[in-house]
Amino acid sequence: MKKVPRALLAEFIGTGILLCAVIGSGIMAERLSGGNVGVALLANTLATVFILYVLIEVLGPISGAHFNPVVTIVLATRQAASAYDRFTLPALFFAAQLAGAIAGAALANAMFDLPLIQASTKLRGGWGQWLAEAVAAAGLIFVILRAPAGKAAALVACYIGAAYWFTSSTSFANPAAVFGRMWSDTFAGVAPASALGFIAAQVAGGAAGTALSSCFDTSSASISAPSEDQT
């Protein structure tokens, strides 16, 4: 199997499993926590941290383990040498990530005997949460670009786990995650009407994280997309 198709499959599967874990653990946590939202959020956080580490370690060598359009954009902008790397490959990654996100949401819903696809009614938004998403995405990009070789998986997982608790939005930090969470009316869901503000804040945060990273004269990122000559 050629490397780019294999990378796209890894992005689809990785994003799907990530969203399945986030949504599924949210459903399980809400059902078992007896109405204690703090306990539910802690359980949701731990599941997300663990699965992120595993997915980045397992799929990183195949696709770079982006699972996030903002990560794909930043790395393509910084590292790509050709039009294929800057535009075509990122577009293919976006498609794989979004398809994986909705597949993961549907799988989580199915496992808990819910309709496969259900639009979330959980409205989220306001300047505080948009600022939180910008901070979450900026920190994520900064961590990825500054991570020493071989340590990105642990650092990214730890950062997201912390950001679940220090940001008012619980740190989506990922447009694909927003898209997937739109289709589960559960603990981790977000209403479609709230999505645009979150995504705009995440893109702005990604740009801020890239700019901040450049202040430290970073070396090449630890997570990167396959280039055209890898096909």
Describe the structure.
The protein has 231 residues and is an all-alpha fold. The chain contains eight helices and no strands. Helix 1 packs antiparallel against helix 2 (37-63) and helix 1 crosses helix 7 (175-181). The radius of gyration is 17 Å and the shape is globular. Helix content is 70%, strand content 0%. The termini are close together.
Short note summarizing the structure:
The chain is mainly α and 231 residues long.
Which secondary-structure class do the elements indicate? mainly alpha
Number of helical segments with 4 or more residues: 8
Alpha carbon gap, first and last residue: 9 Å
Helix/strand order, N-terminal first: HHHHHHHH
What percent of residues are in strands?
under 5%
| Low-confidence blocks of residues | 225-231
Please tell me the overall pLDDT: 93
Report helical residue fraction.
over 70%
Round the Cα radius of gyration to an integer and report it. 17 Å
